[in-house]
Amino acid sequence: MGRIIAVASGKGGVGKTTLVSNLSAALARYGQNVIAVDGNLTTSNLGLHLGVSLYPVTIHDILEGVADVNDALLYHEHGFRIIPADISIREVKRSRNKAVESMLYKLSGIADFVLIDTAAGLGKETVQFLRAADEVLTVTNPNLPAVTDALKLNTLATKHETTPIGVVLNRIMNHPSEMASEEVEDFLGIPVIGKVPEDKAVHKSIAAKTPVVVHSPKSLAAQHFRAIAAQLIGEEYTPRRSLTHTLFGWLK
Ligand SMILES: Nc1ncnc2c1ncn2[C@@H]1O[C@H](COP(=O)(O)OP(=O)(O)OP(=O)(O)O)[C@@H](O)[C@H]1O
Ligand SMILES: [Mg+2]
Questions:
Q1: Which atom of ligand 1 is nearest to the CA of 221?
Q2: Domains of the chain, each with CATH number or no CATH
Q3: Residue with more model confidence, 198 or 92
Q4: Stated pTM of the model
Q5: Angle formed by the axes of helices 220-232 and 16-29, to 10°?
Q6: Gap from CA of 156 to ligand 1 centroid (Å)
């Protein structure tokens, strides 16, 4: 069975969807069979990050019991599959916990990784995926409000017997007011497994509806996203060297 990992944060807007789209593409490049699930049912945007926004069958249909997982699975050109969400406002009326569990169980039977992009906040919508996942990958920005919400997330995850596997610090600007990686580790009691810098290439890649690891593979953000993927599968990551970097090395 594959690993079911909820990518969550507590605080909104810290980079969950960006991480899911990039990890999916990077893990696929490493030969892993990945399914990215849009678990952000009310303000879904994973499809927008990946350039797929109109689909006949979505996670809403699966959770309402009117479609099977296989009907909603969409093959993405970058080598992984997606369970998309409706982009219009659509409530799922039935009680969902059982449906979420059953969907994730089926998906983990046909993938190495099931990565769930969760919604902002720690409401019912997030918790139903958090409790059904095996592991949670925490995303935060290096500031106290975001890290405090990440702590709440990890406490909630542990209560539901979901293991916090590590934290990704995203949008690092190296500003003196930012929390250092060690401080975040002390505060959360879990290791920092990724440090992604603030990078304009991410904005450009989202505008181009393509993960930055594909759109600008040599950018700093892309290298850090690939390093996180490598860590998840226990591979050693060797950064790609840019031409300037290589030439500079020769000249030295
Ligand atoms: N490393 C980065 N460098 C620069 N900008 C980034 C980086 N990571 C994310 N962003 C920007 O931050 C914004 C929010 O990212 P994203 O949508 O991934 O967050 P989210 O946690 O999924 O938000 P929500 O909680 O609303 O679902 C995006 O517009 C993206 O451009
Ligand atoms: Mg998001």
A1: 1
A2: 3-251 (3.40.50.300)
A3: 198
A4: 0.94
A5: 70
A6: 23
